[in-house]
Amino acid sequence: MQVSVESPSKLERRITVSVPVEEVENAFDKRIMHIAQTAELKGFRRGKAPLSYVKQRFGGEARNEALSTVIQSSLYEALKKENLHPVNTPQIEPKMLQPNQPLEYIAVFEVMPDIDAIHFTDARVEKLAVTITEADVDEAIERLRFHRVTWRKVDRSAQEKDQVIINYHTIQGDVPDLKNKVTHFELVLGSKKTLPGFEEGLFGAKAGEERTLHLQFPQDFSTKEKAGMPVDFIVQILEVKEAELPIVDDVFAQSLGITEGGVTALRDEIKINLNRERDRLAQEKLKEQLFNILLEQNPIEIPNSLVQSESKRIHDELHPHHGQEHHHSHEETQIFDNLAKKRVTLSLLITEFARKHTLTIDQARVQTRIQEIAATYEHPEEVIRWISSNKEQKSIVETRVLEEQVVEKLLEGAQIVEKTINYQELIAK
Q1: 189-229 pLDDT, tens per residue?
Q2: What are the boundaries of each domain within the chain?
Q3: Number of H helices, E strands in the chain
Q4: How far apart are alpha carbons 208 and 262 in whole angstroms?
Q5: Alpha helices in 196-329 (DSSP H)
Q6: In a designed cystine with 124, which of 133, 255, 288, 415 is the match (CB 3.0 to 4.6 A)?
Q7: For the chain, what is the radius of gyration of the CA atoms?
Q8: What is the pTM of this model?
Q9: How far is the C-alpha of 346 from the C-alpha of 330, rounded, in Å?
Q10: What is the DSSP letter of 41?
Q11: Domain 2-110 part of CATH 3.30.160.40
Q12: Among residues 296, 286, 189, which one has the least CA distance to residue 235?
């Protein structure tokens, strides 16, 4: 077997393999013999049909199967011989097979980049210091009240925190878009879930009124051709409703699972949860800064096949039920690809950083993290068993633990500046 390797680009490899004709014929003969011994042919007992007849009936099929077997085995040997490790499934480009000539084919694939060194110097990061206050607890309780809101129709002008039921359509360049008219849309004023100026333009409106809002699509609007463009919204106000919120008392606390201690116990539980969330968010912000520095100081070329695979995974995460049927705009696809590039690059850098610093996954910490995840479920023991026995799920936890260990190591070489902010600023970041 002869092997030659070309490198059209830094990460692409084209390996040409030539297999002696004798090896191909041996594989063909073995396949034909197997068919002759096992095939049930009309007019013959099993295994008794003449070999010439079997070749006539199954020769083409047997040769294709033999070629597939030879290519698979010879490629494995060729990769081993050249010490090549594809990151994607090699694409096979077979050459025309000539009688009594060696089998030749080309396998095209990508390999991992060689990372000589990991740079991490002059790193300065902010460590966010946040104190949970009683006002933060009040805000959390208010959100819980809104989760149990009932809406009562009122005959007055709409104000902040009211719900309005509206119909609307847009006009751009004097052309009304009635095809995409939205009807009976429920909107809470002040929720900031629409274009800037939309909710503000409905303050003071009454049921039966129609308003024209002269607005502008944001510069970062998802549909690129509309970004920054003026747009008019024709809005019909159908109803105005005000919120009726539950009273914060022991009954309210019981509805949230507090069996003893009433409102006081509820506030204590909320404060514990807010502190836990504060710690998680602060750590995420710290990790994000460290990893961004790692990315900035270590630009590397990455295999496009890994980027495409990760981009597809992001798509599947966002649209788990659409499969390939969900089509994205060019801008959305670009966003997915950019995020995929960042994830793949970061994953390679983290893995290499861990290798160079001989960091191994702390299995004791993995078990702790699994227990923490399981504690949020009704039957934690079942969740622990499921994650521990599921290779994919356990791998996710192990990846997070390795990231934690890398963060700790990176912090050893970073200048840490503490910055005090409040909880609302933290969750807004």
Answers
A1: 999 889 999 999 999 999 999 999 999 998 888 777 888 89
A2: 2-110, 149-244, 263-428
A3: 11, 11
A4: 44
A5: 250-255, 262-297, 304-318
A6: 415
A7: 32
A8: 0.77
A9: 24
A10: -
A11: no
A12: 189
